[in-house]
């Protein structure tokens, strides 16, 4: 009988319009790229707990040795267990097995990455992962962080347990090895993390289907996997992202713009650029990350939540941060909200006047010692859906127009991108390298077929999204060569 193997893949994405407004429920436009993550899931032999690098079951119930990380020879192996019985090597100082050691095997989940060969194999007890996940995905996060597992492994294990817990409703009964191979650049703003998460879920779906003939995704909610992946990123990886990236990597097709309504968590029919127009990624080589506290991304999200809570005073229909883009339209913002929001608001002053923001956003926390760009962040959220809808309307009108009309449409859409880039700067998501490259690109401008550009995704470096035509590619390639970077298509 042929061994079962599950395979899955998912592309990265370019953020055309919208960016960080996804957590405020806006409409965003996303473009899948050709680069992708590939995942393979295969059974592996059960691990003997009495072999090197694997936890052993010691017979002494009084042993209260703490959790420990053990390394196999020529292999980095990480296994954790909260059980005090599963923590001893079972060996005396001379290397002989203790008589009271019981030989047994354990069901494990292993992961290895082709991009990080020096990390070797990262391995955990699957029973322990399952137990932690049943208590909450944040418990899985604690397990991973305490083990010194490499960061890439968090996305693999997080998506794996979230899919098993919330979609399949069961875990594999055999030990498995997950192999990751990806072309999607890390830390460059093209959703490498969401690409991994979606690919893991697809590989698990394939694994279950090959082994049991059961398709756990065959239901009325095609976006359930995206929700599961977002939960993994929020709760296991500690990145307070919206759902934009996961949906883009799940449903995005190269050559299309995918409109995503992040408020209702739904997609609209794909949009298409004119035939000679392209969306191109220009990596700045400034790496960024969104997981953790006090990142520019976290600060911008918290500032938006602060503005949201203040706006509730004049827009009482608001119940959460995800309502902002729908209820605080550009007119509502200008007429009723702008005057309430200072350009910058100190955390302590906000907390004294309004309390915390947990009622509108559980992933934001106001730091009393921090200053927040509240006005700029809420203004961006209020205008993002308007910008996306305007771009869609312009594209629809350009579908059957002449070359001159298409040029005007692309120039107007490019202006929307440039305006959103300036908003990023006001929100604290800027980077000098990004602005320098955009200024250089726009010095050529629409007359050379370069219509617009913006910091995409979470900003702070990463990849610039560029709207251009095919004739402008040599110009972009020349500038990219100066920056020793490669364009993303």
UniProtKB/TrEMBL annotation:
Galactokinase N-terminal domain location, by residue? 9-43
The record's SUPFAM superfamilies line, in alphabetical order, gives: GHMP Kinase, C-terminal domain, Ribosomal protein S5 domain 2-like
Which stretches does the entry tag as region Disordered?
84-103
- Coiled coil spans: none
| UniProt KW keywords | ATP-binding, Nucleotide-binding
Q: Which InterPro entries match?
A: GalKase_N, GHMP_kinase_C_dom, GHMP_kinase_C_sf, GHMP_kinase_N_dom, Mevalonate/galactokinase, Ribosomal_Su5_D2-typ_SF, Ribsml_uS5_D2-typ_fold_subgr
Q: What is the name of the protein in this document? A: Mevalonate/galactokinase
Q: Which organism is it from?
A: Chloropicon roscoffensis
The root-end lineage is: Eukaryota, Viridiplantae, Chlorophyta, Chloropicophyceae, Chloropicales
């Amino acid at each position: 009988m042929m061994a079962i193997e599950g395979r899955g893949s998912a592309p990265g994405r370019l953020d055309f319009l919208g960016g960080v407004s996804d957590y405020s429920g806006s409409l965003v436009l996303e473009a899948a790229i050709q680069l992708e993550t590939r995942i393979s899931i295969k059974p592996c032999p059960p691990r003997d707990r009495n072999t090197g690098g694997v936890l052993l079951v010691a017979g002494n119930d009084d042993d209260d040795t703490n959790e420990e990380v053990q390394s196999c020879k020529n292999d980095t192996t990480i296994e954790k267990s909260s059980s005090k019985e599963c923590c001893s090597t079972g060996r005396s100082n001379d290397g002989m097995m203790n008589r009271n050691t019981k030989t047994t095997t354990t069901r494990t989940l292993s992961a290895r990455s082709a991009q990080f060969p020096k990390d070797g194999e990262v391995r955990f007890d699957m029973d322990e992962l399952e137990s932690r996940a049943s208590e909450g995905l944040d418990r899985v996060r604690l397990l991973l962080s305490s083990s010194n597992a490499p960061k890439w492994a968090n996305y693999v294990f997080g998506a794996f347990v979230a899919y098993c817990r919330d979609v399949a409703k069961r875990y594999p009964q055999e030990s498995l090895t997950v192999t990751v191979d990806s072309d999607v650049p890390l830390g460059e703003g093209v959703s490498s993390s969401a690409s991994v998460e979606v690919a893991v879920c697809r590989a698990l779906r394939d694994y279950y289907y090959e082994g049991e003939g059961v398709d756990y995704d065959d239901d009325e909610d095609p976006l359930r996997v995206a929700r599961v992946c977002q939960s993994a990123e929020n709760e296991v990886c500690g990145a307070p992202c919206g759902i934009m990236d996961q949906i883009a990597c799940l449903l995005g097709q190269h050559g299309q713009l995918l409109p995503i309504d992040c408020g209702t968590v739904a997609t609209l029919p794909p949009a298409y650029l004119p035939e000679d127009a392209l969306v191109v990624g220009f990596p700045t080589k400034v790496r960024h990350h969104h997981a953790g506290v006090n990142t520019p991304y976290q600060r911008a999200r918290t500032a938006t939540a602060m503005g949201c809570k203040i706006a509730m005073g004049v827009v009482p229909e608001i119940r959460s941060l995800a309502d902002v883009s729908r209820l605080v339209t550009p007119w509502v913002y200008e007429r009723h909200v702008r005057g309430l929001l200072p350009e910058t608001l100190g955390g302590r002053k906000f907390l004294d006047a309004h309390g915390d923001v947990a009622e509108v956003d559980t992933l934001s926390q106001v730091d009393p010692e921090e200053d927040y760009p509240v006005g700029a962040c809420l203004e961006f959220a209020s205008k993002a859906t308007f910008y996306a809808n305007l771009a869609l309307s312009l594209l629809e009108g350009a579908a059957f127009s002449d070359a001159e009309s298409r040029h005007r449409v692309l120039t107007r859409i490019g202006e929307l991108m440039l305006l959103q880039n300036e908003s990023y700067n006001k929100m604290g998501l800027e980077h000098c390298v990004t602005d320098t490259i955009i200024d250089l690109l726009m010095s050529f401008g629409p007359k050379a077929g370069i219509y617009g550009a913006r910091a995409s995704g979470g900003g702070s470096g990463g990849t610039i999204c560029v709207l251009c035509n095919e004739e402008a590619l040599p110009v972009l390639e020349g500038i990219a060569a100066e920056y020793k970077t490669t364009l993303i298509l």
